[in-house]
Amino acid sequence: MSEVYAARRTRLREYCNAGGSAAALVSRPANVRYLAGAAPHGAVLLLGRTEEQDLLVRAGPTADRPTQERPDEALRVQTLPGAGGGDPAVAAAGLAARQGADSLAVEEHHLTVARHRALGSVAPLLRLTGLGSAVEQLRVVKDEEEISCLRIGAEIADQALGELLESILVGRTERHLALELERRLVDHGADGPAFPTSVATGPNAGRPGHRPTDRRVEEGDFLSVCLGATYRGYRCEIGRTFVIGTAPADWQIELYDLVFAAQRAGRESLVPGAACRDVDRAARQVLDSAGYTEGLTVQTGHGVGLEIDEDPQLSPAAMGKLDACVPVTVEPGVHLPGRGGVRIDDTLVVRPEADGGPELLTITTKELLAL
Questions:
Q1: What is the pTM assigned to this prediction?
Q2: Which superkingdom (predicted)?
């Protein structure tokens, strides 16, 4: 992986040089990990004018939990002295000045105002410029190693969900089911959940971002579940909706079939070169035409990777087009206040038709099951 990390840093260095910056300070944790491997908590990356000047700056000894992952072995690491060690970002700015840099590109969208001022104070002759979202844009297209991590994470999430569906659900609370799912993710090898697991029953079902409550599962409920696994830092997502105990009511079948059709339309639109807003439109039109405009989610999907919500965004106002090897979610849903709703959510990788079209990573059945 050292060659991969070095190549990523080289691309960022070329971007900085083209923008007139002699060095760059990367502080956003996901971006540090992308460029330097599994760095200690709070570490920052100082990108120098040459590869030999690149430096991972970290605070003093910490109680980081043991992990098999390590920073890029080819990257020099500087540990700040003392138990607290000070702010690695501030220390890195001072190091950049001592290396002879006259300018430093920083991630202004991640730094607080106080931290930005501290950078200027430690190196007053250093011109601070904005790095913008340069690293986030580098992260959009994944290599096959990254996709492999997402694929394994999806398998773990599928396993955890499948086991839950085989258990007795009636009478158990949303909160208890969510905790059990997160335990099963870890049992199957995940670093942890990719985001707080959502379990929603009855009138809560299908509500985006629902936080589990003490409501108990009842016969005839819709049960919607949204969970994800983190594997080696990469995060995937899956969401499914089921009916509890009895055969689904007619309105439940009708609503489920409609959301399923919308999700299929979105998935089929995932081709290289497709406009992000067109993927959203393909799914949204199915639901709009049935009169569910008011109950729709804000967006149809989003990119995933080292963060659970990253570019590209699949929304009505989204700009840009999809590239091959970009993993995204497709997750349309409808929530009817007081009744519940349906959400179906998959993680897929954009692939050209010659390679079989979009690769589905989350494979738990989308049939409307009565559990």
A1: 0.93
A2: Bacteria
pLDDT in tens, 18-28: 888 889 999 99
Strand order in the sheet with 198-201: 198-201, 222-227, 238-243
Do the Cβ atoms of 122 and 93 come closer than 8 Å?
A: yes
CATH 3.10.590.10 fits 1-138, yes or no: no
In terms of phi and psi (left: phi > 0; alpha: psi -120 to 50; beta: otherwise), the region of 314 is beta
Q: Round the CA-based radius of gyration of the chain to a whole number and report it.
A: 23
Two structure tokens written together for 253: 């079948």
Cβ 151 vs Cβ 229: under 8 Å? no
**In the chain, where are the structural domains located?**
1-138, 141-360
Residue whose tokens read 């260095």: 13
Helix (H) or strand (E) holding 46: strand 44-47
Q: Phi/psi of residue 337, each to 5°?
A: -55, 130
**Measuring CA to CA, how many Å separate 6 from each of 34, 51, 73, 137?**
11, 8, 11, 17
